[in-house]
Design a protein that fits this description.
Structural class of chain A: mainly beta
Largest interface: A-B, 23 and 20 residues
Number of helices of chain B: 0
Strand content of chain B: over 45%
Helix content of chain B: under 10%
Distance between the termini of chain B: 40 Å
Strand content of chain A: 35-45%
Helix content of chain A: under 10%
Number of strands of chain A: 10
Structural class of chain B: mainly beta
Order of helices and strands of chain B: EEEEEEEEEEE
Radius of gyration of chain B: 13 Å
Largest sheet of chain B: 7 strands, mixed
Oligomer: heterodimer
Distance between the termini of chain A: 37 Å
Number of strands of chain B: 11
């Protein structure tokens, strides 16, 4: 089994760009797709990135995803930050023995 | 529009049982694998169980093995989670989720709160 490790929190100002990392503890980050979910306080999660870098319809192009095999990590980049982006963000991946593995979540504060 | 609506949550005593249901609409339910995900108060997301479109695979997290049973009725567009021998630590919001493919969630329901307390 593997874990996905995220920073507990990040903060940035409106209009700026923030990057949230997600490091896979064992096995290659490139072996299985990575997804990102946004959860605003009191609401259900929504998918903002799937299959490493794909954006569902309706998700602004300010959200982008990538993976980096050298650091064995995935990243969620949110550009042109808005106050409405303030939320908890979870990365998620899987493998043959672990169908759904979540990171611990990162609280994004836009101040 | 894809919709997943959970029902059946509530207050139950330790050792008791509860059955959650998820009614799907806006897509061809029988073509998609589905999952249950939960979130304890103030905590992160935790996978509970998954079932394939044709029930060819059914998987459980260790927390659910022997106590929870996932099932689906493709004719009724519904997904269920039967939960037995409930414990205080099962207190959580339970989300129904659609899988785009194995391990990839694309839509979430709004959640059903399960509280296990005496």
């Amino acid at each position: 089994n593997f874990m996905l490790i995220q920073p507990h929190s990040v903060s940035e100002s409106p209009g700026k760009t923030v990057i949230i990392s997600c490091t896979r503890s064992s096995g290659s980050i490139a072996s299985n797709f990575v997804q990102w979910y946004q959860q605003r306080p009191g609401s259900a999660p929504i998918t903002v990135i799937y299959e490493n870098d794909q954006r569902p319809s309706g998700v602004p192009d300010r959200f982008s995803g990538s993976i980096d095999t050298s650091s064995n990590s995935a990243s969620l980049t949110v550009s042109r930050l808005k106050t409405e982006d303030e939320a908890e963000y979870y990365c998620q991946s899987y493998d043959g023995s672990s169908p759904v593995v979540f990171g611990g979540g990162t609280k994004l504060t836009v101040l | 529009e894809v919709q997943l609506v959970e029902s059946g949550g509530g207050l139950v005593k330790p050792g008791g049982s509860l059955r959650l249901s998820c009614t799907a609409s806006g897509f061809t339910f029988r073509s998609y694998d589905m999952s249950w995900i939960r979130q304890a108060p103030g905590k992160g997301l935790e996978w509970v169980s998954s079932i394939s479109s044709s029930r060819s695979y059914i998987l459980y997290a260790d927390l659910a093995k022997g106590r929870f049973t996932i099932s689906r009725d493709n004719a009724k567009n519904s997904l269920d989670l039967q939960m037995n021998s409930l414990r205080a630590e099962d207190t959580a919001v339970y989300y129904c989720a659609r899988l785009r493919s194995f391990g990839i969630i694309d839509f979430w329901g709004q959640g059903a709160l399960v509280t296990v307390s005496s």
